[in-house]
Model the fold of this input.
Amino acid sequence: MARKFLIDGNWLVCSEGTCMQRIQVNSQSTIYAHGKLVATMNDRMDGNFYCLKMVTAGALVGALVGAVIAAGAILTGGAAIGGIVAAIGSGALVGSISGKLLSLMPCICACLTKPNRWTMVKDTVLLQNQKALMPDAKLNCLLGGMVSIILPQIEIVLDALALSNCAYNVDNEDSPRYKDNAEIPNGWTEIKDLEKEFGDEIAAVLINNQNGFKAKLFKNGDIYILAFAGTELKDDEGNFNHKDAVTDGKQAFGLDDKEDGQYANAVSLSNTICSKIEEDNEKGENKKLIITGHSLGGGLATIGGAATGADTYTFNAAGVHNQTFQDQEVNAENTQHIQAYYSDKDPLNIAQNHRNILMALLASSKCGFLSFLGSGIFLTNSLPQVAGQRIGLETDCSLLSGHSLMESKLKEALMAEQKNTPDIQVYTEYE
Done:
């Protein structure tokens, strides 16, 4: 019977964190697999997940300190009520930054998980008298987060990334954008006629010109990939397009159209294709659906993946507001299977991952509009963090290109991971 064990360098994510870390094997130094030390129950992560709870705690402390300072200024006649608000906002900002700095200490996450035990270990396999760690193991943090192990299928992730780029392609050969179409990866073909593919009438649409919604379906053998297009400032004919930007702005505050918005279209299309595939599988087929998307398309893929439970890969995705999940009657908790890849230079995910700092900075601004915006983010829980397993990758790009799917160099970062951490790093023992 084949049993898989973990080794040094395998990926870890935390349900409360903002980035990926790796297993660091310090518990034993003699047992190797494929040149890597095999992990045991006493091993932890090599870095911090930058938990938002740390940042929030720091912000609250900073806000209180700021309030006390402001109160002291009032007693000495040096501040007005407006100064109190500014002090609280500035204090929150300082506290948020302090919380961030706290998370940069030598692996505080390892300390916070040390009192707890991994849930899945192999009792019969001892490595220097320590139980071997299993791939399905979970580890609780004292702050409430849960650490999980990821064994990524990088080959299919790379296909999903490439097809997310193809989702922007235009069909009209006379369009000025046609020459910029991305090449579909080898082995994949685009399915343009859903009714012909599934042999039935399909009410859901791949394109909705009224709201700017756009998706494409691809097939390779029995595997389907549904890819959602992200924000486009030009339509397929090359004309200025404001519809995606409107969706971005409205959805960030949970205001996307409940019935006719892009997120409603994404849920309808995902559910329809998933149902058709399940019907075929009941007849003896072995088909599989994967959902993907970039930017706005990543947000659409997130809610589609949550609605269907299909394997989902997002790239530099927009976070989905809780109100959007509620409006579409989709369980926001059904996102733990989603792998959310993002560049560490992506301004959108930097803002989403550090919304507490951004919120405090805006709220404490002397500019009325910015202060109002910061308060609005807080009161409406806007600018939500991307859902799923957040996998931040170091990419060789600038902040200006960090949100772009291809210019962010996410593909190159994934290929480097594939080279440095191939599948053989999962040690298999036969009993």
Summary: The two ends are 5 Å apart (CA to CA).
